[in-house]
Amino acid sequence: MSRYLPEEIIGDILPRLPAKSVLRFRCVCKSWLKLFRNPNFVKHHLKYAKQRNSTNLLLS
């Protein structure tokens, strides 16, 4: 996924982003698109979005 950051760190940061950013970042690389389509990513993103009381939820 990245030469500079371990996958665990990227996997912890990306679910915390707003849905609008996640949708935009799908085009960064194939591995990020694959990550964003992963049901576990969606579950974690929803968890963080609920914590923020955000109305911008990622649904796939």
Automatic annotation (TrEMBL):
Domain named F-box: residues: 1-45
InterPro entries assigned: F-box-like_dom_sf (IPR036047), F-box_dom (IPR001810), SCF_F-box_component (IPR050796)
PROSITE patterns: FBOX
CDD domains assigned to the protein according to its UniProt record, in alphabetical order: F-box_AtFBW1-like (cd22157)
Source organism, top-level taxon: Eukaryota
Pfam families associated with the record: F-box
Entry protein name: F-box domain-containing protein
Organism in which the protein naturally occurs: Papaver nudicaule
